[in-house]
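Sanity check

After download, print the first record. It should look like this:
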Amino acid sequence: MTGAQYRFRSTWLLPGTAPARVFDVVTDLAGYPRWWSDVRAVHRVDDDTAELVCRSRLPFRIVVRMHRDHQDERSGLMRVRLSGDLDGTLAGAVRAAGAATLLEITQDVQARKALLRRFDTVARPLFRANHALMMRRGHRGLSAYLT
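Expected C-alpha cells:
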C-alpha cells in the first residue's frame, strides 16, 4: 500500500461488562447503528459480509464493506477485511481487565475514496482528528449501550 495510508489504534475500557458480552456486541455489525451514531446504516451482504455507511463531522460519508476474516470468541480475537472507500484490515482483541473489559482496535487502511486521496497531504491531520472523534463517540455509545 502506498499513499493515503493510515494506521489507527484505539483502546476502550468498558467497566462492569463481561468480555463475552462485548465480543457479542462488537461482532454484530447489524447492531452498530443502535449504539454508534456515526454508523448511519448497515446492509447485510451475506453471512460474513456487511456494508457500513459512516459519517462523522466532516461533510462526506465513508462506505466500507467488512468481511469476516477471523472470529474466535474463546481467544477474544476478531479481524475483518475492509474494501470500498477504505481498503485494509480492522482487528479487535477483547480481554478481561479486572471488573472491566478492554477492547483494543487496530486499523490498517488505505483510503480509496477519491476525496480522501486527493486531500491526504494537506488534510491528514484533520482526517486523523475526525477519526479520533468518531472512535470516541463509538466508545461512549458502546459504554452506554452495555449498561
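If your output differs, re-run the checksum step. Summary of this record's structure: Residues 5-146 form a domain with the Alpha-D-Glucose-1,6-Bisphosphate; Chain A, domain 4 fold (CATH 3.30.530.20).
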